[in-house]
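User: I'm writing a tutorial on reading structure tokens. Could you give me a worked example: one chain, its sequence, then its tokens, then a sentence or two explaining what the tokens reveal?
Assistant: Sure. Here is the example chain.
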Amino acid sequence: MPDYREILRQYWGYDSFRGIQEEIIQSVGAGKDTLGLMPTGGGKSITFQVPALAQSGLCLVITPLIALMKDQVLNLRSRGIKAAAVYSGMTREEIVVTLENCIFGDYKFLYISPERLSTDIFKVKLRHIPVSMITVDESHCISQWGYDFRPAYLQISEVRKLLPGVPVLALTATATPEVVEDIQDRLEFRERNVFRMSFERKNLAYVVRRTESKEEEMLHILQRVGGSAVVYTRNRKKTKELSCLLEKNGITATYYHAGLGDATKDMRQKAWLKGEYRVMVATNAFGMGIDKPDVRVVIHADVPDSPEAYFQEAGRAGRDGKKSYAVLLFSERDRVTLKRRVSETFPEKDYIRKVYEDINYYYQMAMGDGQGCMFAFNIDEFCRNFKHYPVQVDSALKILTRAGYLEYTDEQDNSSRLMFLLNRDELYGIREQNPDTEKLLRIILRSYTGLFSDYVYINEDTLAVRGGLTRQQVYDTLIWLTKRRILHYIPGKKTPYIIYTRERQETRRVILGKEVYDDRKSSYARRIDAMLEYASDETHCRSRMLLHYFGERNEHDCGSCDVCLRHKTSEKEQENACEAVAGCLAETPLTLQELRVRTGISDDRLMEAIDYLMAENRVVREGERLILSRPATRR
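And here are its predicted structure tokens:
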């Protein structure tokens, strides 16, 4: 058996594993398909990195988190371990070089996004890559019953067919019992094999604050709790508004959402990680794969639509093991908003069919045509032309994707492209450019081929680094060269796409079956109800509620959530009331009214104390008076 602990010491400097890490490593190291359930911060990466280093070949790591890919590749390389990544935004040439390196370069890890699994170039190269194991991170994304289902994950079972006998390690921090079973089915586990680590976070206090002024409450919390923080909101516009509000109140903050450019997101993320900003205000696009251990508080200004999403986002607080807080701001308006999301996420079937029909008119698709056709999709233009609302259209297209009629991608990076309009001789004859322009042209010609016959994908950041220029200088120069008709430059942009996965069907024949629509709608509604129950319940320990949702039956309260603290306060108040009543009655028998005057205790609390003392036979009633039946003792 490989000495896994020696590998851990050699590369990471630790003497022992944590939690269930070693059990998972031994399982997948023995060639068994394995599912590991580990909370955020539980050390998931060790469970596949150590066994991969213990055997020959390469570990294929499938993850949707580009930020995590880049961070882990850099981390592994810093330890002298050869690792690479393939993700959206890379040119075809860059992808080919990376995959060739994995075939011939003795690489140990290849990180890849699930969308890349179905590309022809990957399938061809994969046959020649010596894969020792497959790791599926965020594996709940493969389950149609999960809160974050991603159709691209379904390609993983096809990859397994290309790699017979190669074990798979699935990892997730959020999975209900139903999803645990579905993950194993979808990944075609040879036998059931699950390792569970308790999801309990003893250093994390869960708090729900009922308030009609969330901005004031947010400020109040951040002014009382020091340290780094994340504030989550569902609205992109609101991220900027809340960030500005914090700045005006002397709290350094920045904001983050999927609509920002990659360079901007990367810059803000790094600035927050370094502590240049105390607070990151963000949509749920932020946080996946971000490892900042000293986050003291995570505040949700809007209620997430599932306990899974809330648990994962809240779990980014306190990863260093120190006392931290997860605060959910809740108002009665949230109840209406959450209930409305069910109808927005699952519009009526006839409405979905109408969207399908309008899409066909939008692209002028003839009956029986379309299979394999791919189109950029401008949702705002589509909604204007056909009088729809974007939220419902987005939901309808996702359901049509699950039903197999088309594939609707969320915003994808459409990389920049350019093609020279002059031939090579004409280009060399131009001499009036400034030195930076000439240098950029030389770098473009050295970096890419086929520029004179077709559009070629380029990367402005790469050109900037190679030319010693800023990205803005590269952009401005390419725009100027386009105006001079020396080349044609198409800047990259984030664009959703629609791909017809089958020929156009008659609208009345569009079938939205039980599994695609009805079952998933019911499942989504149950998650909404569970989230509302969590937010509105004021009697049960919040940690226990979350753990029970994930199938973990612990029998103790956390003692630190707002409900537990309220119970402690209530118990102490009752104890004090009992002592006050017993003390008064020790002096002389008294009527209820006399006790009320002497103790000054509220009626409800006084009656609770008397009922308790009578149940304990410490106080008895004689006529109108209460008498101490035996000497008062402390509870």
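What the tokens reveal: The chain is about 45% helix and 15% strand. The two ends are 58 Å apart (CA to CA).
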